[in-house]
Amino acid sequence: MEDIIIGVVALAAILFFFLSQKSKTKLPPGPRRLPLIGNLHQLSQLNPQRFFYGWAKKYGPILSYKIGSRTMVVISSAELTKELLKTQDVNFADRPPHRGHELMTYGRSDMAMNHYTPLYREMRKMGMNHLFSPTRVATFNHVREDEARKMMAKIEKAAERSEPVDISELMLTFTNSVVCRQAFGKKYNEDGEEMKRFIKILYGTQSVLGKIFFSDFFPFFGFLDNWTGLTAYMMECFERQDTYIQEIIDETIDPNRVKPETESMIDLLMGIYKDQPFASKFTLENVKGMILNIVVAGTDTAAAAVVWGMTYLMKYPQVMKKAQAEVREYAREKGSTFITEDDVKNLPYFRALVKETLRIEPVIPLLIPRVCIQDTKIAGYDIPAGTTVNVNAWAVSRDEKEWGPNPDEFRPERFLDKDVDFKGTDYEFIPFGSGRRMCPGMRLGAAMLEVPFANLLLKFDFKLPAGMKAEEINMDVMTGLAMHKSVHLKLVPTKVSK
Ligand code: HEM
C-alpha cells in the first residue's frame, strides 16, 4: 500500500514538474486560441501578408499562433528579422514539414525544401559557384533579350489594333520560354502543345506546393486529405511532373541529341550526377529536385514582379512619366531601340523603381518558412524547437522605423535617398530573404525582370481599358509560393514614336 502511495505521489510530482515547466514557456503574444484547432478558424487565405500585418499591429513585431498542435511565429520588423536571419540564422536554417513539399520535391531532394544537411550545403555551394553564378547568368543573356524582343513585337501588333494586352499572360509566357531555354536548352513554340503541357504541369505543381494538408497539423485527421481528394490530386500532379522531368533527363542523356548552343542547367546537373564530386551521393532525385526549383522559382517570381511594377505605375502616373523619360532619353542618346541588360546599370531611376516594386510587393511576401532547430529565445520570448517561423517581408518593407511615415506610398526616390540593396544585408528590405537560405537565384531573377520591364517603358505608353479607373485596379494576391496579382493586368498599349 505504502509503495502505491509513494508511486502516486511521485507520478503527481513528475506531472506537476512537467506542467509547471510548460507553463513557464513564454511564447510571443498572439490571438486567443481554441482547443484542438488553435487559430485555424481565424486565418485568412486571401492576402495572408496583409492579414498578418494586421495581427502585427495588434500583437507586435513578433507574434505567435497555433494550427492544431503546431506553434507558428511571425516576425514583422527589420530589427527582429536581423536577429532571426543573421544572429540566429543557423538555428533557423531548416524547413518545416509539409506533405505536398515532401512528395513534389522527391522527399526533399531539392535545394529549397531540403533539410539543413551536409548534402544540402554542398548543393547550395555548387549552386552559388556554378548554377547561378554571375558567369552562368551572363551566358543566358541573349536568351532573355531574344524573348523580350518577341514579347515587345506581340505588344506592338496589339498597339496597331488599339487592343488591350494581358500583361500577366505575356510576362508568364516570357518567363516560361526563358526558363525552358535556360534550364533545358529547349525552344518551345509559345502557343504549341508542348508549351501548353509544360504550363499545365507547372500550375499543378505550384498549387500543391501552396496547399494546406490536414495531416501536417492534425495527424489524427490525416484521413481527411484522402476524403477531400487532396491526396489523389497531389499524386496526379506528381505523376505528371515526374513523367515530364524524366523525359527531359532521357533526352539530355541521349547520345544522339543535338547539344544546345549554351550548356543548359540540366546538362550541368547531369554532369555532377555523373562525376559525383560531393562527399554524399548526388542522386537522380537530387537532379530532379533541383530542376523543379529552377522551373518553379524562375517562372513565377520575375513575372509577378513586373506585373506588380506595371500595376503601381498605372496608379502613380508621375512615377511612370519619370521612369519612361529616363529610359527613353538614354536610348535616344545611345541611338538604340532596345534596352539591354548592360544598359540597366546606367539607369538609376529605373533601378530604384525595380527596388521600390520589390519593396512594396515582395513577390514571396512571407519568404519560405523556416523551422527552429533547438529551443531558443527571441526578444525575450521562448521559441521551442519545431516552431515554424515566417518573416513577413511585406510588413518589414512597411516598418515605419526604417521607411518613415508613408510606407504604402510608391516612391522609387526612397532608394535614391537611401543606399539600400536587396542583397540580404539590409534587413528592412529582404525580397530575396537573407542568410543561409537566401535566394541563390537573385541575380538571375533580377536579370529576368529588368529587361522586359525596361523595354515596356521604352516602347509603349499604356492606358487602362475603357471605363476603368486606377483606383479600381484589384490588388488581391493569388496564394501560392510566389504571390501573383490574382486578377490579370490588362492594358491598352500605344507605340511611342521615335
Ligand atoms: C524576382 C525573382 C525572385 C525572387 C523575388 C525570389 C525570392 C526568393 C525568396 C524570398 C526565397 C526564400 C529565402 C528565405 O527562405 O530566406 C527564395 C529561395 C530560393 N530561390 Fe528565389 N527568388 C527569385 C528568383 C529565383 C530564381 C530565378 C531562381 C532559380 C532559377 C531561384 C531559386 C531559389 C531557390 C533554389 C531557393 C531556395 C534556397 C534555399 O532554401 O537554400 N529564385 N527566393
Question: Looking at the chains present, what oligomeric state does this protein adopt?
Answer: single chain
The set of bound ligands, ions and cofactors reads: protoporphyrin IX containing FE
For the biggest sheet, the summary is:
4 strands, mixed
The gyration radius over C-alpha positions equals 25 Å
Structural class: alpha+beta
| Average pLDDT, all residues | 92
CATH architecture: Orthogonal Bundle
In the CATH scheme, the class would be Mainly Alpha
Total helix count? 20
**Spatial ordering of strands, largest sheet:** 1-2-7-4
Write down the CATH topology.
Answer: Cytochrome p450
Tell me the β content: 5-15%
The CATH superfamily name is: Cytochrome P450
* DSSP summary, beta strand count: 11
How far do the termini sit from each other?
Answer: 101 Å
Total individual domains? 1
Gross geometry: globular
Helix content: 40-55%
Organism: Brassica carinata
Cofactor: heme
Main location: membrane
Family: Belongs to the cytochrome P450 family.
Description:
The protein has 20 helices and eleven strands. It is an alpha+beta fold. It has one domain (about 25-495): Cytochrome p450 (Orthogonal Bundle), CATH 1.10.630. The strands form four sheets. A four-stranded mixed β-sheet has the order 1-2-7-4, covered by helices on one side. It is globular, with a radius of gyration of 25 Å. It binds protoporphyrin IX containing FE. Protoporphyrin IX containing FE binds near residues 437, 440, 444 and 449. Keywords: Heme, Iron, Membrane, Metal-binding, Monooxygenase, Oxidoreductase, Transmembrane, Transmembrane helix. This is Cytochrome P450 monooxygenase CYP83A1. Belongs to the cytochrome P450 family.
